[in-house]
Every structure is written in structure tokens, then in C-alpha cells.
Design goal:
The complex is a heterodimer of chains A (170) and B (567).
Chain A lengths: L6 E8 L4 H11 L4 E8 L5 E8 L3 H13 L3 E7 L4 E12 L3 H13 L3 E5 L3 E8 L1 H12 L3 E6 L3 E4 L10
Antiparallel strand pairs in A: 1-3, 1-4, 2-3, 5-7, 5-8, 5-9, 6-7
Chain B lengths: L1 E4 H11 L4 E5 L5 H4 L8 E4 L3 H15 L3 E5 L3 H5 L1 H9 L4 E7 L21 H5 L5 E4 L6 H13 L6 E6 H5 L1 E4 L18 H13 L3 E5 L1 H5 L3 H11 L3 E3 L14 E4 L6 H7 L4 E5 L5 H4 L10 E6 L13 E4 L2 H15 L6 H14 L12 H11 L5 E4 L3 H9 L8 E2 L10 H11 L5 E6 H4 L6 H6 L5 E6 L4 H10 L15 H7 L3 E4 L3 H14 L3 E6 L24
Parallel strand pairs in B: 2-3, 2-4, 4-5, 5-7, 6-7, 9-10, 9-12, 10-11, 12-13, 13-14, 15-16, 15-17, 17-18, 18-20, 19-20
Antiparallel strand pairs in B: 1-8
Classes of the chains: A alpha+beta (170), B alpha/beta (567).
């Protein structure tokens, strides 16, 4: 990984069937690797926004962006510069804490990381945590000592800072 | 708005795109559309295999410069198109593929998309990586817009195949249909004008060049930029090499022509390209067969790369001056700029070197060879055919011999499967080319192995009265792989011998076409003349030695200037 950083691409795509398939297909066919991908609706009903994180050198990133641009259903593709973006990821973590003495330790950690306990059972706590992927990694490291029973991460989503935005000019 | 069925709307939409001909085979899922062919001025040519239909549409597109249309029914019909569509994709050919599909909905719910219905195939999923774009229609009202958009996408920017999948219920649905003009696709806006700054930089570099070489690719032909290419070449006095796909973009008998580069390129083209201080590459993607080993490909040379596809810039080789533009527009702009910039009177040292290299590496054949060897035969063929005759080739030795020894003089007269290397392409493509250009002779230079892969289209050629000439260089072997087994596997032949069946003359006659077998150059000439005069579908069987190699050759992994064997 160049500069030790994962690269982030944001794309506005047509909100219709088959678009995710054609993008995923292009990545597979050309041998590019998707680290994470998130897709969701935008402020414009007929557009979806994809945030794709990839791992590769500058040349690969350039090819990925060019090849994405060639897809007819991809309306706009931008590379997001790491220093100018806000990134977030959400994780749900089920931690094994049958021993009540450990529970308060875990809950303390959750508070420090500004997470929330969203479900409690005699054996386990389910925790919701939001933040940059680094923050989530750090929290997961802590939880390992108790035992992670189940983990679901959404993958990264991102926006540019300030007024800059990826929009299409109609 | 007019009320009509989806099938009728589709035919009307195709007519609005000035479609003259469709190559296809019908089937259950296309019956509503086929019901309209009798009432349309569009000619339907019934092929004998869908692969043939796709290649014929491709050949039509390349010969005419217009989109070629093929059609196949759902399931196996559609999957049989796949090789032809991939071929068109690799060579950037504007082919429209229309496929039937099982209904999206219906009273009989077991017979619909997603339920593994009879003759259902996920052709959208299958063709996503091999089309420029594809569509599945959901309702009849979408038809005019979709067809219009499909043709626009297929024929603009870097052309390529577009598939439209038409479920049967969309064909039968009666709806209010509106036909409109104008196109607006927000995710597709191909660049065509060159950036003036890049043109200026390129002109400056070329004006100072001591040994400039131009490399013309298939994009020059696609863009109809041959005239502009010739003007720039003559202005710079720069020799022109072509890629295999660029063959025909520059007249190969011109003093500045070097022929094509690559694995089986002309030695003088490979040699001089490596001596260039500035390379002007136009409409080429620097494929591996063209460049040989990339590490040694023109590494000290300054490179200018004109291409309409941004993604081709820097994909295979790094370039100094990229110009994303249509080849015609870029070459025009470059010529204008160069006319102002060029001060010196030619570059006599380089001109002399080019002339010497051509004399040394491409010596003229000594006298007329009487032996029935591919080189002599193809050189003879050139003399027998008019300048505007169209030649297609199959894939393998026949193709590379044609590239080396058959001079293409005009764009769109040399049609071959460059990217995918599809055996069986040449013959149906020749049928398509003949339909596009009925007044010009069309010849398929074939090998026996390739010809057999789509030979059933002889029936199409005969029954539809599309007379083409097939020259089968018959060595009873899969020649190119046999050559590689001789060269790189110590002569161990494995699964390459095809034997002496069928008798091509009898086979041809069985289809109602004429067949000749020739044993000498004189007999060959006679047969070609007879075929040209008769205007009948003709197969000329030319037995040649199984040991015949295509040389010169760049061994795999070597640089293009490390060619072995004599021209």
C-alpha cells in the first residue's frame, strides 16, 4: 500500500438494476481488488453513490478511475484525497462477557470510544461504534481480549470537507 | 404518439437508424419481431449459425463504417453470439446485437426471466464484460429511446458492440410509442477535440525530431483519418508503420510505408520503430502482439499518443505527450500546427536511412516465383485484385502471411480478427463486407482449420446470393500451433493434424458453390480470374506444405527488434 494508505474513490452512478454488477465485473475482469464498497441513495433519487476503497499504486488507481468512467452507467467518478475528506464506518460487535466483573470494563471502553451498547444478554453485549476505520480497528483490538463472537462492518463511506462536492451539472 | 406493438416499434426504430440489413437466426422468443420483416425494407439475411451472424455484422460494420446488426433468439441463440460479440469488442467494431428473451412476466409464470425457463440464458450477465453497454428492455415504450441510445453508444467515441435483450412480452405488448430525436446520456460524453496545448507540445517535439516514426493503429481507420495521416507523414517525411489493426490506414506501396509491426511484423517496421527518437502513435492500444517485450519497446523514444479512449493512455506503456481525441481531429490540428512550426527543409539523413533500410530488409522478390508458396501466392493475389477489393482473413498462419505479403492500399479493405484472434471470423465477415460493398470483390484468405469453423455459411452465401471468394491455404494442419510446436516444443506435434478431409472442392459443390483445386501459381491466377468473372461463391483449395513457417517472427518474450527469419 503506497504511503500506507488505502485509496478512496467516490462515484455517482445510475440508480438502476445491473449497475453494481457491471462495476464489480469490471474490477474482477481487470484484476483490481475492492477492499470495501458501500452503496446507497443520494439526494437525487435517480442516482446512487458508491464509496469504493482500493489497495494499489497510483497507476492502478488511475486505471480504475478511467475504466470506471468508461462504464455508461457511471455518471461521475472522483478520487477523494485522504487529507480532505471525512470518512466514517459503522461496526456492530458482539462481545462475549459472561463474567459480570468484566462488563463494566467493556462498557467503560465503549464510552471512551463514544460507542453504544445496543443489546444486552446474559452472555454477551452488542456494541455499535462509528468512526474512522482506524478507530474501529483500535476498539476491536481492545475487545479481542474479551472475545469477539460476531462482527459486522459496513465498509467505509466518505464525503469531501467544506463546500466541495461531487455533483453532476444537469 | 402512436399505438403499436413492441415488435413493430423495434423495427421502426431500426429503420430510423437507417439499418439496411440484419444478419440473424430466429427462434421462439423472436417470433413477434420476425413477423414484421416482410413488411419492412430492412433485408434479413438468414445465417446458418449465430456466430456467423455476429461476424457478418462485424464484417459489414468494418467495411461500411456503419453499425452492423445481428439478431439471435433467447438462450442458445444468444450464447452463440458471444464469440462474435467478444471479437467486435476486442477490435472496437460497432455491432448491435439483438437477442430474444423469455418474458419478464406472464400468465404462465413458470415461463419467465429468473426461473430457468426453456431457452433462458442470462445474456445480460454473460455479455457485461464483452459489450460497450447492454440493455434489457422492460416495456415497449422504452424501445425507441433504447435503440437510439444503443446505436449512439456503439458508433461514437471508441466504437464497440452493444446488446439489446428483448423479452417476448415486450415484443407483443401494445403501447403508445413516441419516436424522438436527440440524445442525452449523462454518463457518456466522449471527448473528440484535442487539447490545443497538447497539440502544441506534440508539434514542437515532432518539429525537432531527428528520426520520427508514425505508428498508425485501427483507430485511424475507425476515424476515417487516412487522408490526414498521409498529410502529416508527408509533411514530416516520417515513415509510417501500422499495427496489425491499422493495416490499410496507409497505402503499403507508399515510399514512406514500413508495413505492420509486431510478432509477425515487417522487419523494416520493427527495426525503424526502435530507431525513432520521437514516436507518434495514433489510435492504437499498444497490444502485446504489437509491442513484443514492453521493457525493450522504444524505451528511449519520446512518445506522443493520440487515442479517443482515455483509458488506453498509459495502460500498457507510459507516454510523454498524451492526446485524448478523435484521430482525424487531432491529426488535422497537428498538421495545422506543424505547417507553422516546420522550418527546415526535410530531414535528408533520416529519409536516406529509411530508404536504405527498406531496400535492405524488404528486398523486392527476384522474378516471379512459380512455386505455390504463400508469399508468392499473396503477392500474386494483390496483382489480380483491384485496389478497392476487400480482403478478410481467418486466424493463424494465413492471417500472418496476409499481413506480411498482401499489401493493403486503402482503409477498410483489410478486415481481420486482431484482438481476439477468432478462427472462423474471416468467412462470415467476408459475407458481411460483400453485403456492405456489393460492387467490390471480397476475398477471404483462409486456412483449412479456420474455414471449417464457420464453413456452413457457404449456404448463406449461396442462398442469399452474396458471392465471395475463399482461398484456403490448405496444409491439413492447425498451422500456427504446429509451427510453435516445431519451434518451441522440439517438433512434437500434438493434436494439430487435421488430415486430408474434407475434400474442399466437393464440400463447396455440395453447397452449390464452385470449387477449384490449384497446383501452381498459374492455375491459381486462372481460378481467381474465373471466380471474379463468374460472380459466384467460390472456394479455391490451395494445397501447401505442412512444414511452411510464418517468418520472420519475434519469439514470445523478446523485443520486436529481435526478430528471427527472413522476410
Amino acid at each position: 500500500m503506497e504511503n500506507g494508505r488505502t485509496k478512496v474513490i467516490a462515484a455517482l452512478v445510475e440508480n438502476k438494476p445491473g449497475v453494481l454488477h457491471s462495476i464489480a465485473n469490471m474490477f474482477r475482469r481487470r484484476g483490481f481488488n475492492i477492499e470495501s464498497i458501500t452503496v446507497g441513495p443520494t439526494e437525487q433519487e435517480d442516482l446512487s453513490r458508491m464509496t469504493i476503497t482500493v489497495n494499489g499504486d497510483e497507476k492502478t488507481l488511475e486505471q480504475i478511475i478511467k475504466q470506471m468512467n468508461k462504464l455508461i452507467d457511471v455518471v461521475k467518478v472522483s478520487r477523494l484525497e485522504p487529507e480532505n475528506i471525512v470518512t466514517r464506518e459503522l461496526a456492530l460487535i458482539k462481545v462475549n462477557v459472561p463474567d459480570t466483573r468484566h462488563r463494566s470494563d467493556v462498557i467503560n471502553c465503549v464510552e471512551v470510544f463514544r460507542g453504544r451498547v445496543v443489546d444486552v444478554s446474559p452472555e454477551a453485549l452488542t456494541i455499535e461504534i462509528t468512526g474512522t476505520p482506524d478507530k474501529i480497528d483500535a476498539f476491536l483490538n481492545l475487545m479481542k481480549t474479551y472475545g469477539i463472537m460476531e462482527l459486522a462492518r459496513t465498509g467505509l463511506t466518505a464525503l469531501s470537507r467544506g463546500v466541495r462536492s461531487i455533483r453532476i451539472d444537469e | 404518439m402512436t399505438k403499436m406493438s413492441g415488435a413493430k416499434a423495434l423495427i421502426k426504430s431500426l429503420e430510423r437508424q437507417n439499418v439496411e440489413v440484419i444478419f440473424g437466426i430466429l427462434g421462439g422468443a423472436l417470433l413477434p419481431i420476425y413477423d414484421h420483416f416482410g413488411k419492412s425494407k430492412i433485408r434479413h439475411i438468414l445465417c446458418r449459425h449465430e456466430q456467423g451472424a455476429a461476424h457478418a455484422a462485424d464484417g459489414y460494420a468494418r467495411a461500411s463504417g456503419k453499425a452492423g446488426v445481428c439478431m439471435a433468439t433467447s438462450g442458445p441463440g444468444a450464447t452463440n453470439l458471444v464469440t462474435g460479440i467478444t471479437n467486435a469488442y476486442m477490435d472496437s467494431s460497432p455491432v448491435i446485437a439483438l437477442t430474444g428473451q423469455v418474458p419478464t412476466t406472464g400468465a404462465n409464470t413458470s415461463y419467465m426471466i429468473g426461473r430457468d425457463a426453456f431457452q433462458e440464458a442470462d445474456i445480460i450477465g454473460i455479455t457485461t464484460p464483452i459489450t460497450k453497454h447492454n440493455f434489457q428492455l422492460r416495456e415497449a415504450a422504452e424501445i425507441p429511446e433504447t435503440v437510439k441510445t444503443a446505436f449512439y453508444i456503439a458508433t461514437t467515441g471508441r466504437p464497440g458492440p452493444v446488446l439489446i435483450d428483448v423479452p417476448k412480452n415486450v415484443q407483443t405488448e401494445v403501447a403508445e410509442i413516441e419516436f424522438s430525436n436527440g440524445i442525452q446520456i449523462r454518463g457518456y460524453k466522449p471527448t473528440s477535440n484535442p487539447h490545443p496545448l497538447q497539440i502544441r507540445k506534440a508539434a514542437e517535439l515532432l518539429a525537432e525530431a531527428k528520426s520520427p516514426v508514425i505508428l498508425a493503429g485501427g483507430g485511424v481507420i475507425t476515424s476515417n483519418a487516412s487522408r490526414e495521416l498521409l498529410q502529416v507523414a508527408e509533411l514530416l517525411m516520417a515513415p509510417v508503420a501500422t499495427t496489425f489493426m491499422g493495416k490499410g490506414s496507409f497505402p503499403e506501396i507508399h515510399p514512406l510505408s514500413l508495413g505492420s509491426i509486431g510478432m509477425h511484423g515487417n522487419p523494416v517496421a520493427n527495426k525503424l520503430l526502435c530507431e525513432a527518437d520521437v514516436l507518434l502513435a495514433v489510435g492504437t492500444r499498444f497490444s502485446d502482439r504489437s509491442t513484443g517485450n514492453l521493457d525493450s519497446f522504444c524505451s528511449p523514444t519520446k512518445k506522443i499518443h493520440i487515442d479517443i479512449d482515455t483509458a488506453e493512455i498509459g495502460k500498457n506503456i507510459d507516454v510523454d505527450i498524451p492526446i485524448v481525441a478523435d484521430a482525424t481531429k487531432a491529426l488535422k490540428a497537428l498538421r495545422e500546427r506543424l505547417t507553422k512550426q516546420l522550418k527546415k527543409e526535410g530531414n535528408s539523413a533520416w529519409t536516406k536511412r529509411v530508404k536504405e533500410a527498406k531496400e535492405q530488409l524488404n528486398p523486392p522478390s527476384k522474378g516471379a516465383s512459380k512455386d505455390l508458396k504463400p508469399k508468392a501466392l499473396l503477392q500474386k493475389l494483390r496483382k489480380l485484385l483491384p485496389e478497392n477489393a476487400i480482403v478478410t482473413t481467418e486466424v493463424g498462419q494465413n492471417q500472418m502471411w496476409a499481413a506480411l505479403y498482401f499489401n493493403a492500399l486503402k482503409p477498410r479493405t483489410f478486415i481481420s480478427s486482431g484482438g481476439l484472434g477468432t478462427m472462423g471470423f474471416g468467412f462470415p465477415a467476408s459475407i458481411g463486407a460483400k453485403v456492405a460493398c456489393p460492387d467490390r470483390p471480397v476475398v477471404d484468405i483462409a486456412g483449412d482449420g479456420s474455414f471449417r469453423m464457420t464453413e456452413q455459411e457457404l449456404a448463406t452465401s449461396v442462398m442469399e446470393d452474396i458471392p465471395v471468394i475463399v482461398i484456403v491455404l490448405n496444409n491439413s494442419v492447425l498451422g500456427m500451433v504446429a509451427q510453435w510446436q516445431r519451434m518451441f516444443f522440439e517438433g512434437r506435434y500434438s493434436a494439430v493434424k487435421l488430415g486430408s478431409v474434407p475434400d474442399f472442392v466437393k464440400l463447396t459443390e455440395a453447397y452449390g458453390a464452385q470449387g477449384f483445386r490449384v497446383g501452381s501459381i498459374a492455375e491459381f491466377s486462372k481460378a481467381v480470374k474465373k471466380a471474379l468473372k463468374s460472380n459466384l461463391t467460390t472456394v479455391i483449395d490451395v494445397p501447401i506444405s505442412l512444414e511452411e513457417d510464418v517468418v520472420p517472427m519475434v519469439p514470445p518474450g523478446c523485443g520486436i527488434n529481435e526478430q528471427v527469419g527472413d522476410y
